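Researcher: Please translate sequence to structure tokens.
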Amino acid sequence: MSHQQIITHQITSQLQNITAAPNTQYNHYHDARYRANSGNDR
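Model: Translation complete:
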């Protein structure tokens, strides 16, 4: 997989593991994208 596909897969996996309210999912999604784009992966 390319780097972008791996990031997308990681974000998708994170979202699937979140069972909280949609707004929380939204915040987690953008937080994950921010970390990925800034190179600060967990």
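Researcher: Any highlights?
Model: The chain is about 75% helix and 0% strand.
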